[in-house]
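Appendix C reproduces, verbatim, an entry submitted by the partner laboratory led by Prof. M.T., so that reviewers can inspect both the input and the predicted structure.
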Amino acid sequence: MSSDGQHKDPDIELFVKAGSDGESIGNCPFSQRLFMILWLKGVVFNVTTVDLKRKPADLHNLAPGTHPPFLTFNGEVKTDINKIEEFLEEVLAPPKYPKLAAKQRESNTAGNDIFAKFSAFIKNTNPGPNKALENGLGKALRKLDDYLNSPLPDEIDANSMEEEKSSTRRFLDGEDLTLADCNLLPKLHIVKVVAKKYRNYEIPSDMTGVWRYLKNAYARDEFTNTCAADAEIEMAYLDVAKRLTK
């Protein structure tokens, strides 16, 4: 390979779900996950929003039967989200691109049941189990809050005699965004927006770890510029969020 070839960025195009106007970013945590990963890698890439109502023929030929997100990497189509994440971490590697994998194994599973609990809560139409489903979501959020407030090994001073303080880290695995955040944050944001809109449920203010985490995410372009507008998220859940029948 020529030295010139080694420094050239690969040709990457990411296809994400379009919003209701057919152009802006739509509500899709998986699209945002890949968008964030590519942004954090610092690689040059193009983004195309795909209007699912009018999926163009050339896209249909590119990835038949596939809904976004998917990407092309030097012309090769990749459609499996988890495999895409592994592939990007492997090929966009140091020294040119940062490693994004979390150091702590627990960071990858923190909050992994929140979205399922939220979905059960939001889709339920029966007032009977509503409180129990709300509590299920609250319990899952509390578990995440505990993790975010528990110091990571590198925050603990082994020589200190002082009592262990709670963590002040910005993200799941420390001060930097990792693959774990790219997976969880888009879902957590949807939970916050949709539960408030359709169930008047707010993440409790005493969950200081979760709120610190969200606040730090909202201060980062990699999150805010890859995220659908709140109104877009609410619209996407209009038919999913069932009204409680009296």
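The longest strand covers residues 12-17. Additional entries are available on request from the coordinating office.
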